[in-house]
Amino acid sequence: MPRLAKCIPSARCWRKSSDWPQAGHAIQESFEGASAMSVESVATRAQANVNTGSVEAAAPAFGANLPPWPQVDFAEFGEVEVKPVSRIQKLTGAFLSRNWLTIPHVTHHDDADITSLESYRKARNEANPAVKLTPLVFLIKAVVRALQEFPQFNASLDGDGKNIVLKKYFHIGVAVDTRFGLLVPVLRNCDKKSVEELSVELAAISQKAREKGLSMAEMSGGCFSISSLGGFGGTGFTPIVNAPEVAILGVTKTRLAAAPADDGGVSWRKMLPLSLSYDHRVINGADAARFAAFIGTVLADPQALAGQQTI
């Protein structure tokens, strides 16, 4: 059964030593002001907080009394097989739980017409087969344009939640499904790169992620994340925001949809489902709708999008 790339780029993993990163790696996290905790201690502590109903460590300003996780002997009901939870799953689960509990999520769904984009992309690939352009690189460029138009999406809340930090750079994380688990390489300065440059860079870093894993530096500093399940199917989902980012875009499989043609008949269009999750503390619903619609507008003009080296 294929392993789907789950849409929570928050959980980062590093170079593998046996089934986990090199011993001694530390991550900087803000759990009650602590820093330089080991990967295992962060995962263990955060998961323990979730299991016992305490979320104070993950968000000092937020409290909830959650019931303990049910303890069930499943063998009473039939044959079972018990497998240990991997360390990466523990870490992923810890960050998933933190982000889901502390960020007020809303997901806005929309469709982007990529009929012209697909025709243009295929023509470009036929003209220059040495560099294969995928829909994802055009989506990256469209996201950058949207971040420039709506700067509140290229932002983060500071540690105490009293200020919003607006970023002037455009680093985009792209979720990659690997045998190590989910890795999210960050492509830097995407506003200054062509679709060809992004395509080459994305192909190289994705291959490295699948074969060797990635360093923490290669997965740090992202402004906004994209997770694509287009290769697997689906019509939409709710990606979890990758804190401290304030939004994430998920895309699923392109589908054909009927639309009125100019001659009064029916025109079949290629529609890309967009699922935009956002932190409602920073972004309101109207802006999310505008952001998603803007991405659709930009994708509808692929020639202009691809022709700009620096946006």
TrEMBL record:
SUPFAM superfamilies: CoA-dependent acyltransferases
Domain of life: Bacteria
Class of this enzyme: transferase
GO cellular component terms listed in the entry, alphabetical order: cytoplasm
GO molecular function: dihydrolipoyllysine-residue acetyltransferase activity; lipoic acid binding
Family, as annotated: Belongs to the 2-oxoacid dehydrogenase family.
Protein task: The pyruvate dehydrogenase complex catalyzes the overall conversion of pyruvate to acetyl-CoA and CO(2). It contains multiple copies of three enzymatic components: pyruvate dehydrogenase (E1), dihydrolipoamide acetyltransferase (E2) and lipoamide dehydrogenase (E3).
Subunit structure as annotated in this protein's UniProt entry: Forms a 24-polypeptide structural core with octahedral symmetry.
Listed name of the protein: Dihydrolipoyllysine-residue acetyltransferase component of pyruvate dehydrogenase complex
Native source species: Paraburkholderia atlantica
